[in-house]
Structure formats: structure tokens, C-alpha cells
Amino acid sequence: MHHFIDRRRNPKGKSLGNRQRFLRRARDNIKERVDRSVRGKTLQQDSGDPNEGEKVTIPAKGLKEPRLAHSATGGLRHHVLPGNKEFVVGDTIPRPQGGAGQGGSKASEDGEGEDEFSFTLSQDEYLEILFDGLELPDLVEKNTFETLTVGTRRAGLTTAGSPNNLNLVRTMRNSLGRRIALQRPTMAAQKQIESQIEELEMKEPLTAKQQKLLQELQARLEGIERKRRVVGYIDPLDLRFDTYVPEKIRNSKAVVFCLMDVSGSMQEREKDLAKRFFLLLHLFLTRGYEQTEIVFIRHTHHAQEVDEEAFFYARETGGTIVSTALEKMKEVIADRYPTDEWNIYGAQASDGENFGNDSQRCKTLLLQDLLPVCQFYAYVEIVDEDADMLLSNAEAGEDLWQAYRQVKSKVQHFEMQRVSLPSHIYPIFREFFLPKIKGAQHAGS
Amino acid sequence: MQAAETTNKVLFDGPEWTFELMEKARDAIEDIALNDLGLEIYPNQIEIISSEQMLDAYSCAGLPLMYQHWSFGKHFVRDDTLYRTGRQGLAYEIVINSNPCISYNMEENTMAMQTLVMAHAAFGHNHFFKNNYLFLQWTDAAGIHDYLAFAKNYISACEERYGLDAVEEILDAAHAMQAQGVFRYGRPPQPTAAERQAMQRVRDGYESSQSLLDLWTDSTMRHEDEDGEDEDPQISARQKELNLPQENILYFLEKNSPILRSWQREILRIVRCLAQYLYPQKQTKVMNEGCATFVHYYIINKLHERGQLTQGAYMEMMHSHTNVVLQPEYDDPRYGGINPYALGFAMMVDIRRICQSPTDEDREWFSDFAGDPDWRGVLRHAWANYRDESFIQQFLSPHLIRKFKLFTLTNDAKHPSLLVSQIHNRAGYRDIRRDLAQSYNLAHLEPDIQVTDVDLRGDRELKLTHLVRNGIQLDTVNCEEVLKHARKLWGYGVKMTATNEGDGQNV
């Protein structure tokens, strides 16, 4: 008894459980590297392939599997080696540095010899570790918001239609097939006979034989001309027209506006937190949309659109006027992102300071200009790690916070939260998005 | 005419494999394996798998089912990275010592490779598994699948019930001592209580009938024992009670640890049972691979002789074969120890040569089988009754020592430099053979550690003794880590002492 079994269709990823256990085990090491990688990472990098994972390298130290083994040095050992060339009994060889040969190769067998260990995390694993083990729910896939526009979709070919929809390729293909099938004489064949006739006519007077040939040629020419008349080059039968049907299409382009206060009060820690928030929003949207773009707007007392590098790392001095950033955002939307094509997301991070009565202006801008075109707008206030009072009490806060609270009470797709630690980011993100499925359709409707 | 005949006979033409072609090739191989070589095999189950599944199998010690543990995930990640970056190829096959004998063939193999792999694994390894005494004595080929399924389910049930961390802790600790979780020598099974009573009755009857001859009764024996030993009688009594010394540390902990709960004991049992199952493979690398390589080499040559292989396929197989049996010399950058395929194959070819055309030297060294007309029988006998160490000790010929130009390098920590102690000449053959055999002796390769004493009524410190051979100590960093694990399983102190082999001195 014997048999062959084709196992290739068996479920893959048999060792997925092992992998999860491994990541759990190496969590501290991986976490450290992931945190480090966030700092060096740009948001746009991810937009290429959302399924692409993150490569991490961790020290193998924490993953040792200790075994009782002989030490690599010391004692009396005999090694038998192949390939003796010139040695005779009694020869001595200086001891090589770094232990005897065989000991070394054994040590690396279970990975002990390697200092570093690199592998690729999938994006889900990466996010989970980045946001401190908060489980990423499946809901992420579903509740991105999309605007609808009416467009047209091709719906095959028809035999009747308006000339502007004529499908030339298909028409000509039909015509060619018909001409070949009906053996329509070509222009070249006609030309050839015509020139033969001409040649003969030049040779007046003709012999009887030539006379006969001439008549024959003329008859053939007549036949050809008649056939070319009857079998048209293009017949109404050949015509094909494209047809279009109107259809509602979902826009699958999204743009994220990252707005950040970069005045002196925003330090490294605040920016790092803000970066995580923007990163997560962007990753989130990359999964839901075919194409995502990011616009970075930083502001002090005036706002600028900048590239990512400048956004996170350049220093600016000046006061803080938040409304300038909102103005800038409005301007960019009007300029480049027509709302019927783009799903617009706003994300704003700040430490909550604002100049004088500018907060009221922000409120008006948001309510009148921005929120009607945005799918979602999130405001994150980054507070000190020990500001328990602020964290626990949503009512307390400065001007900007108070003004935004009024906005929130009026608009459903506006969210605001305070954070002080990386681990706060993900939960608030979830809070932002989870209950918002119903209040989604604003823009474009 | 002749060409037409051979094309009819060839098993396949072209690189693509199909199940029909494999079936045909398998039948042809079987004909040679069983009727010519006289192999005896388990029924074959040949499974075609993808590279990803091969990587899966790699990470789980090559077993088809395995419980889950992070270390397997680590191995998978490492192999996967090496494979994807092209630094490591994958094996063409994996074969499992089970009944039916399962071999995994990669789908990427060409038809020629599939044929080679079938001859190698499904017949070569298969025969070895079924006939070698170590496998017969220590493994249960028919039951391994059920046991693996049980182990996997049991451990995942434990994880659900007691939590991942609790199970991981026990598995980590058990894995650390997995190599010390095997019985190295067979022992008669312990008599059950009923059997013991029956024995006692028989003895009583015998004793009463021979009441005058009370020289050999238990009481006198024990008395003598106590006289003979200068050790503390208490110690020897409790050693006897716990069946000490005990080489199987996991077994000892499973049976005697004061703190483990029953599910934890069961996990220790699973780990040591698997260690025991894999133990024969560790001892027969050279023989197992040599046997499989010899078998595939013989079979493909036979197939070629019979005109069942095209020249192209034959060349492809030979190319692969020569890669496998390449033995780089010690100063070659590719050198990574002695290649078990090369050594095993060369020795088996050599045995055939000694049978078929012995020289005077062979007659002197191998008088028992030199010139034996049945070389197949000699090989089958060797495959069945030896392991690496004894096989080399018995069959490595001076001819091969010269061919490999073997020499012994002595590394004595007391001397500043290494010494070439033997080379391939008449004076060196026996020493080189012994040294090479010793380098495959697991009893020497793995540290000899035994549970020697514990006072269960006292401080309960578990005493392990490392028997130091040739002054080779344990790797201290690793040892300390392992002892931490051992303490977790034992619940009280665990101490490792080292004793010199020769004089019994503590070091």
C-alpha cells in the first residue's frame, strides 16, 4: 500500500500560532525597535503598499533557549579533520583565536551565535505593537466614509449610436473580416490591371492576340470595379458603437490634512505623540481608500504648507494663532481637492494654546467652511503626563478646548480628545471611529 | 530501432512532474529497492507540499503536527528570512519515522528530482527507520501521529485553561532540559504491584522449601551492602527510594517534583517523550543519510542501466548527488565539519567494494566480510545493527581514511598550541578511527548529568552531578540559565556539582 497526497492546498500558516507566541515573547525588544522606527519613519512611505510589513531587527539576546552544553573551550579534545596535506605526526599549529572550530559551529545551531535577528512584521502586528498591544478590531476595514458622484460606466458595444461614440477599432475589425470573407478586390489588384491595359493601349496597332488580351483585361477590370462597388469598404453592418450607462461611483481617494501647532511650546514629546496619531490615521485610511494623500500644515501665528520633514522636525518661533491653519486648509481644499472627488479628513494636534479670542474664529471656520466638506475631523490636545485634572475632566480647559467643545455639541463627525501617553492614542482613535458609522455621509451629499 | 525501444522504456522525459509520472517512477524504484536491494519498508505516503509548508515543517523539528511554542515561531522566522534572502535553500524532502512512512516532497522539484527524492527518502530512509535497532527499540512508528495529535491538543487545552504564560513557563523549562529528558539505556519495565506480590509469593515458597540455605535471602544481602559502603546509609536508602542516580532529569522531575500539578507533569512527559522519539535520529545521522544516499545512488544507476532514465535526467540527478556528498577539506572556506552524507555514503560504497574486490589490507582488517558475495546482506546487517559511533568504529577502512586524508588534531587546553596527533598512516588508522567514532558518540558530545541526591525530608535541594570527561566543563552562562528553569520545576534549590571522571574528585 502506498499513496500520493497533494498537500499544497492545505491551509497555510500552520505556524501562525507559533509566530504570535514568538512576538509576544519578544515584545519588549520589538517594541523598543518599533518605537525607534516610528521616529525615523515618514508617513508617506506607507502609502505604497498597505499590505507591506515593517522590517525590524531585534537582539537575539532575549530569545535565548538555554541548553546544558559543554563549553567551547578548555579540556582535552580530539578533532578528526579531512584533507591533510602536509602535516606529519608531532606538528603543532598555533591555536586559532575565538575558540576551537567545532565548538563555534555548534553554538550557532539554535541561533545563539547570532547577535541580531531580523524579520518582517505584518502591518497589523506592527500597529498592535506600536499602540501598545491594543487589539486592532476588524471594524477598521468597514467604516471608512465615501462620497458618491454620478459618472458613466462603459456598458459594452451596440450596433446603433451617435457618431461620436463610434468604436473605430471594432468597426474596422468587422469591416476587414467581411472584406476578406467576401473577397473584395484590393485597390492594388485594380491598379495592376489598369496599368496592364494602359500598356497595351500604348502599343497601337495591336495584334489579334493582344486585342483578345485587352478585352479580357477590360472585362476583369469591370468585374473588379463592380465587386468593389457592391462590397463596400465599410458597410453599415460593420458599425459598432460604445455605450455608456450612468452610474453612481464611490470615490476612493482620500486626503488627510495634518494640522499642527509648531510653536515653541510643542516639544519633542508632543510632536512624537502627534506623529503617532497622524500615522495611525493615515494607515487607517490607506486600508480603506485606493489613493491617499497627505497635506501637512504647520502653524505658529501664520500657517504654511510644508513637507513632512519640516513638519515634524523644523523649528518655528512665534505666537499661536490656530485659525491661520484652518484658513490654509480651506485654501488648499478649494485649490486642489474638489470635494466631489476627494474624501477629506482633518486631523489637528496642538497643546491647547491659542491667541486671545482667535478660538471663536476657529469655531466659526470649522462650522461654516470645513466641517461641511470633511468626512471627519479629529482634534487631539496633547497635555502633560501629570495633568490628571485635564485628562479626567472634559469640561476643564482653555479657550480653544472650550470653543471646540461647542463645535462638538453641534456636529457629529467632529471628535476631540486629550492624550498624554502613546497608549492613549489608539483608544481615542477607536472612540473616534467606532460610533461614527451613522453620522458619516456629510460631504458630497 | 534501439532508440525507439529506449524511448518507450524511459519513465519520463522533461522536467515537469505529474502524479501519473511519479506513480510510474515509484513503481520502477520499488522494483529495484525490494527485489534487487532487498529493502524492507513501511508503506509509503508521499505528500507534495509547497515551500511555505516546508518552512512550517522545518520550524517544528520536521514533525507533521506539533504543539505551539514561541521557539518554533523563532525558528520559522529565522528560516523564513534566510530563505527569502537567498542565504539558505530548502531541503528537497523531509521524511518522518512513522508507519505509514510520510515523506514530504517539494512541489518545486523537477521530475528528475522527485525521482531521486523518492528513492532517497521513501525507500532509503524508510528502510533505515524500519530496520535499525535504535528506532525499533525506542520509537513507536505506528503511534507517533496519535501521540503528536494528543500532545498538541493537550497543550492547547492547557493554554486555554491555565493561560499562555503558565504553559509557556513549563515548556521553556522543559525544553531547556530536553536533551536530559531521554533514557539512554533500555531497562526492564518496573513490575506492577500485582506482579511484585506474585514474585514475593514464589520467593516465599522457595525460601520455605530451602530454609537451610538462608545465605541468599534479602536480609543477608542488605546487611552485606551496608557493610560494603562507607557512605551514609541514610543517603543510600533515600537514593534507592527515589531510584537514584537518574540520568533522565525530566523524568525525575515529572515523577518527584514536590510542586508540580498533574497537567504540568503531563507536559514534562510530552516533552521528554518527543525527545526520546527524536533521540535515535541524533545518533544515526551518518548512517541514516549514508543509507538513503547509497540507496538512491544505486537505484538511479540501475534505472539508467535499464534505460529508464534519459541522459538529461541522469545527469541532473548525478549533479545533485555530487553536491550532496561533497566533502570540503578542513582548510576550505566551505568546511563545516564532516558531511554526514559524504562519510556515510563513502563508507557504504566502501563496504560494497570490500565485499566485491577486497585487497589484502581489507582481508586483514575485515576478515569477517571481505570477499562476501552477498554485499547487500552485509549492508543490510550494518544498517540494522549499528549506530554512527559503532558503525564507524566497525567499518571505517584504512582505504577511506587515506581517501579522506583524515588526521587528528589534539586540542589540549594545557598546551599553547594544537598538536597533530595522528595522520593517515599505518600507525594512525586505529586511533583516527576511534577518535572519529568518539566524535559521534552522544554520550561524549552531550554532557553527562545525573540527578544524584535529594533529601526530601530536609532542605529538599536537588543535587545534579556533571561527570567531567577530559576536563571539559559546562558552558557556565547556559548552565546557570538552565538551573533557573530547573528550580522552577523543582520548587526548591537545584545545585550542579562537577565530578571528575577518573578520580571522582569534585572540581
UniProtKB/TrEMBL annotation, chain A:
NCBIfam families: PRK05325.1-2 (NF003707), PRK05325.1-3 (NF003708). Residues 1-64, 90-116 are annotated as: Disordered. Residues 1-12 have a biased composition (Basic residues). It comes from Parasedimentitalea huanghaiensis. This is UPF0229 protein GO984_03775. HAMAP family: UPF0229 (MF_01232). The lineage of its organism: Bacteria, Pseudomonadati, Pseudomonadota, Alphaproteobacteria, Rhodobacterales. Belongs to the UPF0229 family. Residues 25-38 have a biased composition (Basic and acidic residues). Pfam families: DUF444 (PF04285).
Automatic annotation (TrEMBL), chain B:
It comes from the Bacteria. Signal peptide: none annotated. Residues 447-500 form the SpoVR-like C-terminal domain. It holds the Pfam family SpoVR. Residues 16-443 form the SpoVR protein-like N-terminal domain. This is SpoVR family protein.
